[in-house]
């Protein structure tokens, strides 16, 4: 449900988040529900502020039962440094709010019931989002770190896989807590939504990878210089295997050999991308025309 615009960004509230607020209302603790809503909202708009500071476009924000999602331009994932800064802004805002809460308590500006909940809410959201699992903020930092060594597709699959693992663990604990009476539906719902979101992130890995490849040409023209990575391949290896080790912010050169280890020529990453677009993933690299020497 669209709730309006904040800082020029469309704000949506997921129906299950509204259900969670309704549960707070029925339980007679709507004040706590509104605090949780405000904490999540500030967390997400900390991402918005950081993204805008770095020149990353933001389309909208959606509040979910386990937190929120800030949808930004696809270029953010292609720049690991920017992704780390934007991801870290959310948990940082929660730690700042927790520190402000402690200061308010020290100055006597404190509510004996809602004050501790405010601190607990901020610390829990910060700790939860620091887990190294997509789509959480810690998972985005983890992916940005992995992408430098293994590429965006492998990094996304590994970080999203951790997200699915954590989601399953949370759902199991939530179900056990519900049966034993130690917790309500909120933990179980959080686990299920986290699993759904992690699965969706994992399904996006091939598209992110192709976007990374398509962006490399413009990145080279913009920067003027990129570090090179030299690879060696046999001529019958398919392009889909050649591109697996490709890394962001590096330009790849492939030395092509035949089965007798004789040098056949060199192809550039730009040629490989053009070959992918023209002939598909199953073209042998030896079919590409080598660079003139």
From TrEMBL:
Q: Which GO terms describe its biological process?
A: proteolysis
Please provide, alphabetically and separated by semicolons, the GO molecular function terms listed in this UniProt record.
metal ion binding; metallopeptidase activity
Required cofactors, per record?
Zn(2+)
- State the species of origin: Desulfotomaculum copahuensis
Keyword annotations for this protein? Hydrolase, Membrane, Metal-binding, Metalloprotease, Protease, Transmembrane, Transmembrane helix, Zinc
Q: What is this protein called?
A: Peptidase M50
Membrane spanning residue stretches: 114-134, 165-198
Record family assignment:
Belongs to the peptidase M50B family.
Which GO terms of the cellular component aspect does the record hold?
membrane
What membrane topology term does the record carry?
Answer: Multi-pass membrane protein
Q: What is the lineage of its organism?
A: Bacteria, Bacillati, Bacillota, Clostridia, Eubacteriales
Q: Where in the cell is it found?
A: Membrane
